[in-house]
Amino acid sequence: MIDFPEISWASIAPQTVILITALTVLAIDLLPRKIERINITLTALLGVVIALIFARNLTPAYETDFSGMIYRDGVSIYLDQLLLAGTALILLMSHRYAQFHPIAYGEYTVLLLFASLGMMTISISADLITLFIGVELLSLSLYVMSGMDKSSLSSGEASVKYFLLGAFSTGFLVYGMALLFGACRTSNLVLIGSAILDGGAGTPLLILGFALVLVGLGFKISLVPFHMWAPDVYQGAPTPVTAWIAAGSKIAGFAALLRIFSLPGISFEPFGGYWAQAIWWLSMLTMIIGNAGALVQNDIKRMLAYSSIAHGGYLSMAFTANNTVGLQALLFYLAAYLFMTLGAFAVVIAVRRNGRECLSIPDLAGLARQHPGVAGLMAVFLFSLAGMPFTAGFVGKLWLFGAAIQEKYYLLAAVGILTTLLSFYYYLRIIVFMYMHEPQKDAVFDAVPASGRIAAGLAAAGVLALGVYPNLLWKVLAAHTNGL
Amino acid sequence: MAATLFFWLCAFLAFFFGLGVIVARNPMHSALSLVMTFVASAGLFLLLHAEFLAWILIIVYSGAVMVLMIFVISLLNLQRDEPIEFTAARRWGVAFVVVFAAALLIYLFRDASVGFTYPPKPAISAEWGSAKAIATDLFTRYLLPFELASVLLTAAVIGAVVIARKPDPNEINGMESTGEEPSNQ
Amino acid sequence: MTELSLAIYAAVRIGVIFSAVMTVVAFLPWIERKLIGRFQQRFGPYRVGPHGILQPIADSIKLVFKEDIIPNNADRVLFVLAPTLALITAVMNLAVIPFGPTFELFGISFGAVQVADVNVGILYIFGFASLGVYSLFLAGWSSGNKYSLLGGLRSSAQMFSYELSLGLSVVTVLMAVGDFKLSEIVLSQEGGFWNWWIVSPKWFVIPGLLGFFLLLVSAFAETNRLPFDLPEAETELVAGYHTEYSSMKFAMFFMAEYINMIVASSIVTTLFLGGWHAPLPYEPFVLAPGWMWFAAKVFVLLFLFIWVRATLPRFRYDQLMNFGWKFMLPLALFNIFLAACCLLLADRFAL
Amino acid sequence: MIGLNHYLLLSGVLFCLGVLGVILRRNVLIILMSVELMLNAANIAIAAFSRYPLFNAGTLTQEDYMTAGNGLVFVFLILTVSAAEVGVGLAVVINLYRQRSTVNIEEVNLLQG
């Protein structure tokens, strides 16, 4: 007989709750009676809220659990909360979206929850195996979700492109992990860390392994040479799915980078030298090409895709800086990025004209006349994405650039600031259209439903709160990053 | 001696059929080459004393996954592909991969920790690689990833069914209005 | 023992087992035709030799001398490969079947009547069975004939649908024995038919019976025998995947099918019917050598195969799929659960 | 005598073949197969690594590494996951084929900037 290990439910409580919620939704959806969409949404929201409560009550323990599989530190608790908040917002948006588009809502919700579960698995991983399964759970769910609108040719195309590039990147990720395993003969990140400190740093296997893992994860967070898929997938996928790819998948990707490149309990000093340099280039390229690409876009989703690529560049700056300030800035900026991106997408989903999505920028002309509230919220998100003062985006950027300057990466910070200035052009262009252009002929915007208002409002509250009182999060972050 | 021969046989087969996967014009031949690559890899696993994995590889990959793949190929009635065109971008891609491969192999050779003729691990028990050893690890230390893998399979089943089934006409027409052009079915 | 003598013993074992099975395979069609004739109140083969006993020889002469045709639009390599693969995978499976315990001849022990006692015997058999799927599919696909293609598609869909319940029905026995080794599984059923897994009190009979039923039905499906012979349904598909085959290539499929029948019966025997153990552990029964008991059980099962063929009509395709996925698979999963509960209970009360 | 490097070389070559396949081929299904080739290469590497010991372990002892992890479980889970991935991938491809009647990735080009 096998002696089963002690199971510490407490440390995976949020994940367990999300799993149970997903299965419950699946069971509800299987009931022979037709189920109203609102019931599915409410069930899922309830589960997410319960999980959020569990996540808030967790106390960080700076040691591995589940025989070395997970690491429940402050960072993971923080990321879990962030991802759960994001899931709740996406649920609200999807509810509105499914009213107009033929997606199988029950299965959609289940997959959405599974995707979130995958992301939350990444955030607690202390082992390459757990991390890999988390990445795959997240990716598989998102491949399917991006193809769920059967009435749309572009949705099918998006799912194929996302799948192919995603599978390709998985190949790199797995091979990289195989080499890491080979270099240290263990898949446990903590042990890999101690093996590196032990004198393993600089071995070819290790370098190659980390490089391939970086390529694999680079695809997932669309860092520049690996970003080709992002614009097409963002444009083609159903909008709430795009939002979750932009926000959730990117946060999860950075969580994976954090887990691998700053191994639990150890800073990445041992190989900081190699990684700072590699990520310096990636970050630079990403900022320049992401922002340049966004300049010429006319489709909002495509523009947001390039904007999200550019933000990946800002975020990865923290890995170059490779210090505590950088880590805190990264975690803060992830929260800011989550709220402003989801907010912008929430508005895009909420605003419709004659039942159709307004996907090109001129479509939004005159929005402020009819829906001043929604237009105002959109302006807040765009200002924050651009980095105007008093928004979360500003504080986050300041913090990130500060971390880079602290480590004397002046050129990187300068490029960051310049590209930020550049980005004002394309963000403000939307605001100009919303406020200063006459509406198009016979353009009447549909009424914006409550779910859309709530989602956008909550996101805006987050953006403004973090922008005006960054101390709210600062203390939490200081406490959570203590152990690193 | 026999083991050495067996290794070279499997290695040659794996390489030969691996090449077959990417050069065969007919998708069916590609798929069958992949099956043979998996069989050869299973041979390598046997040589590494990973008996259980070797058979799992054959049963799961050759027996289920690739049959599914072949099934799809013949359902879609795919004929021969166009020959590979070497555009400039592709030429660069090939050059990159070849350089990358050379770099990879040089790196591996340089590594002091992996000697060319290093003998197999002496301390490995007879149990190593058996179903029992893997099961014990899977149900104790790797319990969490194992459970997560089952969640992943659930997600994959749901996803595959949802996306591959024919759209229900009511599902499409019953909407208040569809945002984009209708599909061409 | 030196390596050389080991090799010689192994060669002897391979030779004996292979020739014995091939003899049975040669006469099985005759037995089948005779029996079916009787079931249908006619005589069956009667012309060649007494009671048609030389019919198999006549048939094989005919097959060898027939013209070997390869259709013009066939994929030539795969067309030739398919029947070879069918025969090879079938024969390979014979290697791990424990036909009998250690036997002695002229005072020399030849080891067990089994070519190789592989550690993961069950997986070995599943592995080759799953490779066998390709032979039928490739035969259908490479013929360049739509009936063949349909037959091939059907066979692969059917075989991997039923492979699931096949695998799951075996899991119950594996749980109880705790080993993949076929010889271990046989040894665990020592001492009378009440210890055989089909009725073992260790799990209160029911999971055993259920598992036996599931395995038997899946085995019928895996060997493409009636009522699961849709891949070659004459009335709809001419002859399915082997429509275009003639001469020796056809004979290979034919042989593979009969070997597969024998392998399937042997596996059922090994897993559920006590392998080469005598039904009663007492004097007159245990005197007969183990391989005889094994052969007797296999013949009973082969008779069952033929009996079913003579009795049941063919499934419709959708019925086949529904039966596999909606009945067999859930039942097999439930059976595993049941068996696990029974084993736990038995363990708790030290039965 | 076959050493670790033989396996690693083979695995590296197979990995590169997979990458080449993804770059060169335009048929979605063959791209998927090439990805499987890459994953298979990783599996061979991991299995080989767990069979051969670490040469220059520093203060960490051999036991530390042995208790650290079993690569075969890693391989097992990678097999599981990539099988699921193929399942989903084939479904996605079927969906594409229904909509467009093609599996050539170059003909799938509605979305452009």
Keywords:
heterotetramer; B: 185 residues; mainly alpha; globular; D: 113 residues; 73% helix; 0% strand
Largest sheet geometry of chain A:
2 strands, antiparallel
How helix-rich are the residues of chain A, as a percent range?
A: over 70%
Number of DSSP helical runs of chain A: 19
Order of helices and strands of chain A: HHEEHHHHHHHHHHHEEHHHHHH
Helix percent of chain D reads over 70%
Quantity of strands of chain A, as a count: 4
Overall body shape of chain D: elongated
Structure in words:
- The complex is a heterotetramer of chains A (484), B (185), C (351) and D (113).
- Chain A is an all-alpha fold.
- Chain A is 74% helix and 2% strand.
- The two termini of chain A are 40 Å apart.
- Chain B is 69% helix and 0% strand.
- Chain B is an all-alpha fold and 185 residues long.
- Chain B has helices at residues 2-23, 27-47, 51-75, 88-110, 131-139, 143-164, 169-173.
- By secondary structure, chain D is mostly helical.
- Chain D is built from four helices and no strands.
- In chain D, helix 1 packs antiparallel against helix 2 and helix 2 packs antiparallel against helix 4 (71-100).
- The model of chain D has no long low-confidence stretch (mean pLDDT 82).
- Chains in contact: A-B, A-D, B-C, B-D.
- Chains B and D meet through helix 1, helix 2, helix 3, helix 4 and helix 5 of B and helix 1, helix 2 and helix 4 of D.
Question: How is the secondary structure organized here?
Answer:
The complex is a heterotetramer of chains A (484), B (185), C (351) and D (113).
Chain A: H1 13-30, H2 37-56, E1 64-65, E2 70-71, H3 74-97, H4 105-124, H5 128-146, H6 153-184, H7 189-200, H8 204-220, H9 229-236, H10 239-261, H11 269-295, H12 300-321, H13 324-350, E3 352-353, E4 356-357, H14 367-370, H15 372-386, H16 392-406, H17 410-436, H18 450-468, H19 471-480
Antiparallel strand pairs in A: 1-2, 3-4
Helix pairs in contact in A: 1-2, 1-4, 2-3, 2-4, 3-4, 3-10, 3-13, 3-18, 3-19, 4-5, 4-10, 5-6, 5-10, 6-7, 6-8, 6-9, 8-10, 9-10, 9-12, 10-12, 10-13, 11-12, 11-17, 12-13, 12-16, 12-17, 13-15, 13-16, 13-18, 15-17, 15-18, 16-17, 16-18
Chain B: H1 2-23, H2 27-47, H3 51-75, H4 88-110, H5 131-139, H6 143-164, H7 169-173
Chain D: H1 4-24, H2 28-51, H3 62-68, H4 71-100
Summarize the structure.
Chain B is an all-alpha fold. Chain B contains seven helices and no strands. At the B-D interface, helix 1, helix 2, helix 3, helix 4 and helix 5 of B face helix 1, helix 2 and helix 4 of D.
